[in-house]
Design brief:
This protein is an alpha/beta fold. It is built from 11 helices and 17 strands. The structure holds zinc ion (ZN). Zinc ion binds next to α2.
Length: 347
């Protein structure tokens, strides 16, 4: 089969298209004929490397993928060949105290397809049957590949961590990122009001088309002033942040009493000076979040199948052009998900 593999970390040139043996499913596993695979920031970390972190190279990247069941291990009987599926990217042991408490994302043995084991940048991928989600016949497989990681993450952030409520005022940074697109739709689904920030007028407009009530181009306007005017003072209930150093120190001053700031990443930098006075005076919560549970994903998926939430696609590239797709990831204009087309004839 053809697959993309990373043997050493570096620029786009380390993404090599190779011919590899078709993998065989082990106990509890199925083999998927892959149709589409979505890119995430995780793919760029796998490619570039992360200081102090070891990836199991050589590795096939790709944590979000869809396709049809090709074959199953003999102990997997409830997934007929040809079933259309997408995949929960999170791997967990299923038997530790965290897993038993439905907190699989806290499992000590937690892993992710395309990070800790081979992923979906390949014509075939082997996954655990318990990680499968059946895709309805009427739902396109490209969109099915585009949502798991980001909607799972955004659902855990807003619903699991922040316990979002109707009418709350939510600021979501970087409107065009996959997690922010998902968070905007999920917040609106729960009846919250949303404002977004973005680096271009075009992305602000797309953020509003995606459900935000207001948007601020932080390149041309002071987003802090904008947020205060929108919320009627320092009156935000929730801030969804994956920017970090450039936004969190100012952000905590904009929260109302009892406000929550939830972070799932730090694209601008992780180290910052934080003034703690508003944190205790206003009983704020600063919450960290990574990935989510199978239940988070199935809750989001139910709304996706019925069109109440809808993944936004930025662009697609043939798998052979994976280097070009990664270059697109680095462009400022990206809004929504970038897809790799592996075999679009599957649906
Ligand atoms: Zn576990």
């Amino acid at each position: 089969m053809r697959a993309v593999r990373v043997h050493e970390h570096g620029g786009e040139r380390v993404l090599l298209l190779e011919e590899l043996p078709i993998p065989e499913p082990g106990p509890g596993e199925v083999r998927i004929r892959v149709a589409w695979c979505a890119l995430n920031h995780l793919d760029t970390w796998v490619r570039r490397g992360v200081p102090g972190h070891r990836f199991p190279l050589p590795l096939i990247p790709g944590c979000d993928f869809s396709g049809v069941i090709d074959s199953c291990a003999s102990d997997v009987t409830d997934w007929p060949q040809g079933t259309r599926v997408c995949v929960n990217p999170g791997l967990f042991c299923g038997s530790c105290s965290c897993c038993m408490a439905d907190n699989q994302h806290l499992c000590r043995g937690f892993g992710i397809y395309g990070e800790t084991t081979h992923g979906g940048n390949a014509e075939f991928a082997v996954v655990k049957a318990e990680n499968l989600l059946q895709v309805p016949d009427s739902f396109p497989l490209d969109k099915a590949a585009a949502f798991p990681l980001t909607y799972l993450t955004a659902w855990r952030m807003l619903v699991g961590r922040c316990q979002i409520r109707e009418g709350e005022k939510v600021l979501i940074h970087a409107a065009g990122s996959g997690v922010s697109v998902a968070a905007t739709q999920i917040a609106r689904h729960f009846g919250a009001r949303v404002m977004v920030t973005a680096g271009t007028d075009e992305k602000v407009e797309k953020g509003i088309a995606n459900g935000a009530e207001a948007g601020c181009n932080y390149q041309t306007e002071d987003w802090k002033k904008f947020a205060k005017e929108w919320a009627g003072g320092s009156n935000l209930d929730i801030i969804v942040d994956h920017v970090g150093m450039d936004t969190i120190p100012a952000g905590i001053w904009l929260l109302a009493k009892g406000g929550r700031l939830v972070t799932c990443g730090v694209t601008s930098g992780a180290e910052m000076n934080l003034h703690l006075a508003p944190v205790f005076f206003k009983s704020l919560s600063i919450l960290g979040s990574t990935m989510g549970t199978p239940r988070d994903l199935s809750n989001a998926a139910e709304l996706i199948w019925t069109g109440q939430l809808s993944p936004v696609l930025d662009s697609s590239f043939l798998m052979a052009n994976v280097q070009e797709a990664h270059r697109r990831m680095g462009e400022r204009a990206v809004f929504g998900k970038i897809l790799l087309e592996v075999d679009s004839s599957l649906g």
